[in-house]
């Protein structure tokens, strides 16, 4: 079942299209390092393409009909875009579902302290990370601080050329004899991931003069007091832009490929595809890295509520119609897969591994061990997807997430499958997944977009 590397099949025109897509993706990835920023940039693109806010339509009682383009936003961290098709919505939708959160370091609610004349922000890491990978890197900080009067202060520091960067220090090799004897998970522990932010004392301060200097900075620059950190969401991420990787410029290295590479290609597929028979949807959710929980995760009622509101504006607002719309839908859970890395071959079973340059990757199931926690798509649906890919000349491959007893992971597929809809995991293969800097193949990015467009058009 070996297939030709997709790079060998491209015409000059296709290579130009591939290059343009990947350049725009790098820009999106560099500017969307948090779920809030990803939603903001998604809405800019959606509104430019004619999408209207569902909340506004509901308030005005504006009817929704075939051809309309609508978006719904949940707490500025999750978004669903609907291109209404000719087929009645209760007969189902074609859905691309990805997530826009990524592993990172979050700042605690009582974070600021001084130790040995250094100022730090106390942190709690988010998602599955190898903690030792996050030391000695230039880091940026993004987020919001909300004051008691409701004023929202945007924070973005570390990614402009004249910005300072932040970071976590590590022990020098000369004194690391004991540290290097520890297990990898404990070489650097969670409470050691505090972010160093300053070392200059405030003249005249009687105690914690460096902390006092930082409090002065926060008051002068952001207009906040120390207590305002209680109502803040500050995320620490790698500083720097996504860039080409490899001397042949065939790959992209950047922070947050998991899962913004699938989110972006799903979004572009929806915005580009105009031949819509069945309502097409791009759903971008938060909290996948911690189980899709909370009001902005895929387990929330956000998407179901949005579908109900649209059906009501179409004059078909019964709860049964909502159930039918969801049950009769088909979905690609647009999430990344692990790429085969020849530096670590022992964790993969090569026949069922994803390879760079071989196109979008379909995972019939994810989960752990005996498929625990997985959706496990049915064979009939996979056959439909295969046909669509072949008919549209999309390069694709299938894979599992490593050897059976090696580990595993999950996506949002099993959550949407609860409605009875058909769901299959489909995404881009990633090297160094969950590291601060991940790598993808430009060819696979291109094939993913082609696959998502074909699915929206023909599923």
Could you explain how this protein is built, in words?
By secondary structure, the chain is of the alpha/beta class. It has two domains: 6-102 and 255-458, Zn peptidases (Aminopeptidase, 3-Layer(aba) Sandwich); 104-238, Aminopeptidase i, Domain 2 (Roll), CATH 2.30.250.10. It has eleven helices and 22 strands. It has helices at residues 12-31, 35-48, 54-60, 184-187, 209-222, 257-272, 302-313, 319-327, 379-391, 413-416, 442-458, and strands at residues 52-53, 69-74, 78-83, 94-99, 104-115, 118-126, 139-146, 152-157, 195-198, 232-238, 243-245, 251-254, 280-285, 330-333, 337-338, 360-363, 367-368, 396-398, 408-409, 422-427, 429-430, 438-441. The strands form five sheets. The chain has a nine-stranded mixed β-sheet with strand order 1-2-3-13-4-14-20-16-18, sandwiched between helices. Strands 8-7-10-5-6-9 form a six-stranded antiparallel β-sheet, with helices on one face. A hairpin with a 5-residue loop joins strand 11 and strand 12 (251-254). Helix 1 crosses helix 11 (442-458) and helix 7 crosses helix 8 (319-327). The protein is globular, with a radius of gyration of 23 Å. The two termini are 24 Å apart. The model has no long low-confidence stretch (mean pLDDT 95).
């Amino acid at each position: 079942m070996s297939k030709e590397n997709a790079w060998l099949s491209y015409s000059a025109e296709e290579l130009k299209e591939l290059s343009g897509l990947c350049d725009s993706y790098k820009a999106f990835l560099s500017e969307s390092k948090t779920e809030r920023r990803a939603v903001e940039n998604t809405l800019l693109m959606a509104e430019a393409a004619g999408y209207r806010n569902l909340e506004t339509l509901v308030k005005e009682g504006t009817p929704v009909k075939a051809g309309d383009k609508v978006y719904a936003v949940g707490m500025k961290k999750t978004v669903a875009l609907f291109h209404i098709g000719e087929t009645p919505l209760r007969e189902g939708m074609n859905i691309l579902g990805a997530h826009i959160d990524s592993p990172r370091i979050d700042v605690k609610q009582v974070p600021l302290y001084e130790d040995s004349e250094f100022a730090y922000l106390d942190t709690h890491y988010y998602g599955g990370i190898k903690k030792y990978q996050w030391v000695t890197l230039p880091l940026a900080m993004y987020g919001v601080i909300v004051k008691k009067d409701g004023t929202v202060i945007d924070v973005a520091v570390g990614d402009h050329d004249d910005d300072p960067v932040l970071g976590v220090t590590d022990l020098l090799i000369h004194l690391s004899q004991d540290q290097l004897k520890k297990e990898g998970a404990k070489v650097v522990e969670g409470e050691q991931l505090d972010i160093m932010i300053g070392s200059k004392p405030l003249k005249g301060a009687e105690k914690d003069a460096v902390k006092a200097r930082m409090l002065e900075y926060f008051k002068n620059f952001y207009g906040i007091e120390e207590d305002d950190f209680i109502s803040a969401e500050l995320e620490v991420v790698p500083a720097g832009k996504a860039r080409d990787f490899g001397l042949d410029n065939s790959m992209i290295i950047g922070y947050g490929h998991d899962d913004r590479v699938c989110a972006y290609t799903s979004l572009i597929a929806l915005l580009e595809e105009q031949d819509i028979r069945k309502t097409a949807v791009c759903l971008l959710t938060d909290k996948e890295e911690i189980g899709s929980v909370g009001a902005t995760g895929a387990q929330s009622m956000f998407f179901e509520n949005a579908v109900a509101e649209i059906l009501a504006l179409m004059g078909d607002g019964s709860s049964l119609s909502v159930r039918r719309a969801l049950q009769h839908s088909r979905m690609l859970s647009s999430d990344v897969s692990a790429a085969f890395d020849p530096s670590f071959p022992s964790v993969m079973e090569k026949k069922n591994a994803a390879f760079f340059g071989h196109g979008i990757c379909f995972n019939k199931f994810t989960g752990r061990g005996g498929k625990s926690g997985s959706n496990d798509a049915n064979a009939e649906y996979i056959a439909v997807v295969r046909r669509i890919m072949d008919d549209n000349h999309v390069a694709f491959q299938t894979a599992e997430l490593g050897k059976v007893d090696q580990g595993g992971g999950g996506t949002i597929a099993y959550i949407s499958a609860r409605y009875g809809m058909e769901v299959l995991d489909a995404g881009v293969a990633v090297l160094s997944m969950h590291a601060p800097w991940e790598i993808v193949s430009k060819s696979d990015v291109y094939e993913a977009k082609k696959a998502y467009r074909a699915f929206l058009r023909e599923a």
